[in-house]
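Weekly sync, protein design subgroup
Attendees: M.S., D.O., the rotation student, P.L. (late)

Item 1: inverse folding check
M.S. brought a backbone from last month's batch and wanted to see whether the design step gives back something sensible before we order anything. D.O. pointed out we never logged the input encoding, so this time it goes straight into the notes. Structure tokens as presented (258 positions):
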């Protein structure tokens, strides 16, 4: 099985390409199953996010994916999800949307701590306290059993200068909790592409993934496609799988689906 559950759409305002073009690219690249998991439209009342679809777009997003699922049935399997942060006070709303729209899964993409309007972006953390807060949020999220996997679990290294003892401790706790809850950790190909372009580790962060391999934790490759062409980089996908095997991680293709 060749799969990817991490696909965005133009509704998040930073992706390119028609929904159907992502499906066509995935078929061309030989994928057996893909999932759309655009950034969830949290029901903010007096705040407009610049990196996620508005709440009013959710119904159209669901309809589009369901239409594509039927159109390409027999050629590729398509599942429907969202990429979500862990904002405790907003989780009941998220669960309501999952039931109302028949979502198959949500993945934890914890971009902000506590909340977005007044929160801290986890890709630009500067202090040990911020790193610990990120870790605490991820552990709490996994305890809910709501999330099918953790997208870019090492996002905290995108802006942090060095993998110090705090990072090591937080990483160990996340990996241990992922194993205990049988939750895969994502090896993110978009972060890998950015890192190669910027000539700096970012994420996937080598020290983090060395620990994942040593623990033999479950890992899943996430294309994190923001444009259809991301599906076509076969060399990058193959390199990621070979790297996970070399490290000692357990690559998986199945996640919890409703």
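Designed sequence read out in the meeting:
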């Amino acid at each position: 099985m060749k799969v990817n559950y991490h696909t965005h759409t133009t509704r998040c305002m930073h992706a390119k390409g028609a929904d159907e073009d992502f499906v066509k690219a995935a078929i061309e690249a030989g994928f057996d199953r893909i999932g759309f998991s655009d950034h969830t439209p949290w029901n903010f009342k007096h705040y407009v996010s610049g990196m996620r679809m508005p709440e009013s777009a959710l119904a159209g997003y669901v309809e589009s994916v369901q239409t594509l699922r039927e159109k390409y049935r027999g050629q590729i399997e398509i599942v429907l999800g969202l990429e979500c942060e862990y904002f405790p006070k907003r989780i009941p709303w998220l669960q309501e949307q999952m039931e109302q729209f028949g979502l198959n899964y949500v993945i934890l993409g914890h971009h902000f701590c506590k909340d977005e309007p007044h929160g801290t972006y986890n890709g630009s953390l500067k202090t040990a306290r911020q790193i610990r807060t990120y870790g605490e949020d991820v552990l709490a999220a996994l305890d809910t059993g709501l999330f099918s996997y953790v997208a870019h679990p090492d996002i905290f290294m995108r802006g942090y200068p060095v993998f110090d003892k705090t990072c090591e401790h937080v990483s160990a706790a996340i990996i241990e909790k992922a194993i205990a809850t049988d939750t895969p950790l994502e090896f993110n190909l978009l972060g890998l592409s950015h890192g190669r372009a910027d000539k700096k580790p970012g994420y996937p962060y080598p020290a983090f993934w060395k620990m994942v391999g040593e623990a033999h934790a479950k890992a899943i490759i996430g294309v994190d496609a923001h444009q259809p062409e991301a599906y076509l980089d076969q060399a990058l996908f193959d390199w990621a799988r070979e790297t996970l095997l070399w490290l000692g991680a357990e690559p998986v293709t199945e996640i919890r689906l409703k």
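Discussion: The domain at 3-251 is CATH 3.20.20.140 (TIM Barrel). Residues 200 and 255 are 30 Å apart (CA to CA).
Action: P.L. to compare against the previous round before Friday.
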